[in-house]
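Backbone-to-sequence.
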C-alpha cells in the first residue's frame, strides 16, 4: 500500500543547545540562559546526554545528573526510532555523524496515531465500497472475528454487533470453517466451493495474515452460491427438452454458431473465444496448446467454422496414431504403383482432401522428424509431391496444429525442429485446463448428463449438491475428458434416476461410502477395492459399446455421430476398453 508512516525529518526540532562535556563553563551558561530549552551534553566518544532542567546553578559533577540520550539517523524508519526512547523521551538526530536537532517521543506518538487513523479510514472506506454480495471476514490469531462486512451480514444473516470480537466457532461448525483452517495451516484457498453451514454454499478465497513470518490472522472473501445451487437443481430437471431442441435446430442450421459446442462462460473461455474470432478473420496457421483432454479439436473446429463455408472440409489426422511408415502416404497421398500393396488407383492424401478447408494436425509433437522436414516445405512453399508422384500439387488449405507437449523442450532435446515450430507458431491459442475454469463445471455437467441419459436411456431427476461439491473440489488432471467419463459413470450407475455421491470414483469422492441404516446394499460379494470397482464398470461399458458397434455394423463414423462425440474421442474410448 502506498500509505506509509512519516519520515524522521518531519519531526526534527532545533530549539536546543548542544555543548561538550569538557566545557563546564558553557554547560553552566547554557542551563542558566535557556531554562525551558533542552540542553544536550556530548562526550568525547560522541555519546549524548540530557542536562535536567532542575540542575543546580553550581554544578560540581555533571556526569552524576546527566540522562543518557540515544541517537537516530535521518533515514531510520519510525519502527526503529521507537527503541530510542527507552531511557529518555528525547533523542538526538544525526546526519553523517552531525547532530541536526532532536526528536520528541510525544511528536512521534502523535504522528503514528494520526497515520493509524488515516489507514483505518482507508480500510473502512474500502470495505464499505466492496460488492454487497461478497462477504469479507477477518479473524485474529485467537480465532475471534475482527472484521464482518455488510455482505457477511447479508449472506450469513448474523448482525455485525453479535459476532465482532467473538470466536467464529460459536457461530459455525469448526470443521466447516475455512478461515480457521487457513489460520492453523497457513494454506490459502482460491475459488474453492465451501459449505460453512449445511444450508449454505459459498465460493471462497482465503489467505493467512502474516507479520514478521508469524501468522496473526486470516481473511476470507466469500460469494453466496446457495441460490445458484438450488436453481441448478430445478434447471437440471428442465434442460433435457431444451438440449434436444437445440440439437434439432443445429441439424437444420449447422453453421448458426461455431462456438455452440464450446461450453462455459468463465473468463478463460470467453478470452479463448475472443481470440478465435480474431484468428478467424485470416487464414494464418494456428498452433493450439493445451493439456490432454481440454478439447483442442473442438477449438480447431470452431476456428474452421468461423471462417469457412458449411461445405468446406475439416480433415483431422492424429499424428500419434499413425505408424511412421504410413504417415507420409496418409498426409501426401500416393500415385498408383507407388509401393507394394498400394491401391492400384492411387490415393488422395489428407492435404488434398482438405483442399478449400482446414487440415487439423493433432498431437503434432508426435510427428516423426523426417516428416517434419516435408511438412515444413508445405508450409513454406504451399506445395508438395505425392508419394511416387512427379506432379507438384498445391496445398490449398489452412493448417491448424495442436499438442499437449512442451515443444520448446522438445526443440532443446532435438526431437522437434525449431524452424517448423516457428512456422506453426504464427498464432497461438492456449486452451485453459478445467482446474482454471471450475465455474464451467455446472454447464459441462448438464451437457454430459443430457448426452448420456439419451445414450443409456436414463432419466436423471436428481443430482445432489454434495456431488457438485466433490466435482468442484477435484482438480481434474484429465480435464474435460475426465469429467465427461465421470458423468458417464454416474449416469450408468443411476438406475433409479438419482445421481448419488457414492457413485463417484474413489479419488474424487470425499464422503463416507459406508451404507446408511436400512439401506439395501444387495448381496454381499466381499470387499471391493477401487481397482475392482473400475474393472467392473469398464466391463459393463465394454458390453454396451460392443452392442452399439454391432448395431451400426462396426461403422465407427456412424457410431461417433450417434453418440455426439468426435471420432478421436471414440477411438480413445475403444482403445481404453480394448475393443
Amino acid at each position: 500500500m502506498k500509505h506509509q508512516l512519516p519520515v524522521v525529518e518531519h519531526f526534527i526540532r532545533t530549539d536546543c543547545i548542544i555543548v561538550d562535556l569538557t566545557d563546564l563553563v558553557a554547560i553552566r551558561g547554557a542551563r542558566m540562559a535557556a531554562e525551558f530549552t533542552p540542553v544536550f551534553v556530548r562526550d568525547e566518544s560522541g555519546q549524548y546526554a540530557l542536562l535536567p532542567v532542575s540542575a543546580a546553578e553550581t554544578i560540581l559533577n555533571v556526569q552524576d545528573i546527566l540522562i543518557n540520550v540515544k541517537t537516530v539517523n535521518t533515514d531510520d524508519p519510525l519502527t526503529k526510532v521507537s527503541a530510542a526512547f527507552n531511557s529518555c523521551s528525547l533523542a538526538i538526530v544525526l546526519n553523517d555523524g552531525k547532530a541536526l536537532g532532536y526528536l520528541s517521543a510525544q511528536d512521534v506518538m502523535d504522528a503514528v496515531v494520526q497515520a493509524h487513523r488515516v489507514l483505518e479510514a482507508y480500510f473502512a472506506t474500502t470495505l464499505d465500497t466492496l460488492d454487497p454480495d461478497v462477504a469479507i471476514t477477518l479473524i485474529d490469531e485467537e480465532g475471534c472475528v475482527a472484521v464482518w462486512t455488510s455482505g457477511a451480514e447479508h449472506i450469513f444473516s448474523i448482525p455485525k454487533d453479535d459476532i465482532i470480537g467473538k470466536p467464529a466457532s460459536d457461530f459455525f461448525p469448526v470443521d466447516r470453517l475455512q478461515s480457521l483452517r487457513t489460520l492453523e495451516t497457513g494454506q490459502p484457498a482460491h475459488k474453492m466451493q465451501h459449505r460453512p453451514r449445511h444450508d449454505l454454499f459459498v465460493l471462497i478465497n482465503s489467505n493467512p495474515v502474516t507479520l514478521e513470518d508469524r501468522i496473526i490472522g486470516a481473511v476470507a472473501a466469500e460469494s453466496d452460491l446457495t441460490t445458484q445451487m438450488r436453481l441448478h437443481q430445478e434447471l437440471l430437471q428442465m434442460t433435457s427438452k431444451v438440449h434436444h431442441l437445440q440439437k434439432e435446430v443445429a441439424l437444420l442450421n449447422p453453421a448458426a454458431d461455431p462456438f455452440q459446442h464450446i461450453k462455459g462462460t468463465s473468463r478463460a473461455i470467453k478470452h479463448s473465444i475472443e481470440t478465435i474470432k480474431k484468428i478467424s478473420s485470416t487464414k494464418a496457421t494456428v498452433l493450439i496448446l493445451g493439456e490432454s483432454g481440454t478439447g483442442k479439436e473442438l477449438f480447431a473446429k470452431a476456428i474452421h467454422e468461423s471462417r469457412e463455408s458449411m461445405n468446406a472440409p475439416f480433415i483431422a489426422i492424429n499424428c500419434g496414431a499413425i505408424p511412421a511408415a504410413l504417415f507420409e502416404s496418409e498426409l501426401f497421398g500416393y500415385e498408383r504403383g507407388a509401393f507394394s500393396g498400394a491401391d492400384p488407383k492411387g490415393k488422395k492424401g489428407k492435404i488434398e482432401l482438405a483442399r478449400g478447408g482446414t487440415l487439423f494436425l493433432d498431437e503434432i509433437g508426435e510427428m516423426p522428424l523426417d516428416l517434419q522436414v516435408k511438412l515444413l516445405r508445405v508450409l513454406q512453399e504451399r506445395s508438395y509431391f505425392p508419394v511416387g508422384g512427379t506432379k507438384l500439387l498445391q496445398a490449398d488449405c489452412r493448417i491448424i496444429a495442436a499438442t499437449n507437449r512442451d515443444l520448446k523442450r522438445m526443440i532443446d532435446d532435438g526431437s522437434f525442429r525449431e524452424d517448423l515450430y516457428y512456422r506453426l507458431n504464427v498464432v497461438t491459442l492456449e486452451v485453459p485446463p478445467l482446474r482454471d475454469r471450475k465455474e464451467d463445471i455446472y454447464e459441462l455437467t448438464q451437457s454430459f448428463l443430457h448426452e448420456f441419459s439419451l445414450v443409456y436411456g436414463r432419466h436423471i431427476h436428481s443430482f445432489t449438491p454434495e456431488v457438485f461439491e466433490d466435482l468442484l473440489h477435484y482438480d481434474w488432471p484429465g480435464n474435460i475428458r475426465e469429467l465427461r467419463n465421470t458423468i458417464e459413470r454416474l449416469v450408468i450407475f443411476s438406475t433409479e434416476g438419482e445421481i448419488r455421491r457414492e457413485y463417484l470414483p474413489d479419488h474424487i469422492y470425499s464422503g463416507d461410502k459406508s451404507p446408511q441404516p436400512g439401506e439395501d446394499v444387495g448381496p454381499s460379494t466381499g470387499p471391493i477395492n477401487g481397482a475392482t470397482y473400475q474393472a467392473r464398470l469398464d466391463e459393463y461399458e465394454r458390453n454396451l459399446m460392443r452392442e452399439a458397434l454391432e448395431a451400426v455394423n462396426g461403422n465407427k463414423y456412424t457410431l461417433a455421430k450417434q453418440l455426439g462425440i468426435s471420432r478421436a474421442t471414440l477411438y480413445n474410448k475403444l482403445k481404453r476398453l480394448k475393443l
